[in-house]
Automatic annotation (TrEMBL):
GO cellular component term, pick one: microtubule organizing center
Record-annotated CCDC81 HU domain positions: 57-105
Superkingdom classification of source: Eukaryota
Gene: Ccdc81_2
Organism: Ibidorhyncha struthersii
Protein name (Swiss-Prot/TrEMBL): CCD81 protein
Signal peptide extent: none
């Protein structure tokens, strides 16, 4: 199931068929879709076609992130919002940005 991070975007997987020899194999390809507010604010292209149908995304559960990181919920939420703000600032200045998330996908 995909996850939506408010003001940043959503992460999910989509099925993709690949040819392996004479056999067709379906894999789950990780995808990221930038939040509409960031795309509009920075005049970026919005690719809405990546999710098949009306696939439901769940909002990020800050309490679960906080528990996994062993920090208070408010700190986890603040860090995520700060990262989103920094990303937006960098995009606004036309900088290339790489957001690396370990162990995702």
């Amino acid at each position: 199931q995909g996850v939506r991070i408010p003001t940043l975007g959503s992460f999910d997987t989509i099925p993709e068929c690949i040819q392996v020899g004479a056999e067709t194999v379906t894999i789950q390809k990780p995808v990221f879709h930038l939040a509409r507010n960031l795309a509009i604010a920075h005049n970026l292209m919005d690719n809405k076609a990546y999710l098949p149908g009306n696939k439901e995304l769940v909002p990020l559960k800050y309490s679960e992130v906080a528990r996994a990181a062993a920090v208070p919920r408010q700190k986890a939420e603040g860090c995520i919002q700060g990262t989103t703000s920094l990303l937006s600032h960098c995009l606004g200045k036309g900088q290339n940005v790489a957001l690396v998330l370990k162990e995702v996908g």
